[in-house]
Amino acid sequence: METFFSNAFKISILLNPFAVLSTFIALTGKMSVRKKKNIMLRTGFAAFIAGCVVLFSGSMLLTLMGVDLDLFKVGGGVVLMICSITLVWGREKQSESADPGDLSIAVVPLAVPMAVGPGTAAGLIIIGSEGVTCPWSYILNTGALLAGILVLAAVLALGVWSNKLLSRTTVSVITRLTGLFLSALAAKMILEGIRNYLGLVRG
Which of 36, 117, 132, 112 is nearest to 82 (CA)? Predict the structure, then answer.
């Protein structure tokens, strides 16, 4: 169960919930509370489906491409580090609120690539490739992903009533903290990949 909670925490961070929240708030500003709730649920469902595809087919894709897991850790860690730096430094976007009747934003850009982007995909592939020895492992990984999706949905729920609950400054601060956690995961991935690939023995 320790692995389950560890993976659930990692996935919750990898999904960038507060970065998704900031985009959610920007795109749904003119929508009714009912439509915001609809988009929140659709985003969670779409992110879960995308996450399952990456989590359970990633190892097979690596094998087909002939890419070593340790090399993927280094490459994925670099991508994740870039994503984390972007979150920490922030990006000023001149984006307008979405069409009040447009619900497709739940899939693009909220679920993909905001929640399940390149860095998240790299982390999910690694989680899905490690420690999978029996069917129970797949159940635990699915549960960990579902837990991460529930965290994402809970954070997006704040966006439904964002005008009353959160200020843009609060969202910005939390987004940068999320970036710091992502940078730590990225550094761990890179260092582990280099160490294992070079055959170094842990000291």
Answer: 117
Measure the CA–CA gap between 190 and 171, rounded to whole angstroms: 28
Ranges of each domain in the chain: 2-25+33-197
Mean pLDDT by 10 residues, the chain (203 residues): 88 91 79 90 96 88 79 81 80 49 82 85 86 78 96 91 70 78 84 82 51
Residue type at 146? L
What is the rounded CA–CA span in Å between residue 129 and residue 172? 33
CB 81 within 8 A of CB 122: no
Nearest to 15 by CA among 130, 112, 128: 112
Indicate the pTM of the whole model. Answer: 0.76
- Which spans in the chain are helix H? 2-14, 17-27, 33-65, 69-89, 118-129, 135-160, 162-165, 168-197
Q: Which two tokens stand for residue 96?
A: 């307008």
Angle, helices 2-14 vs 135-160, to 10°: value is 40
Spatial neighbors of 113 by CB under 8 A, at least 6 apart, are: none
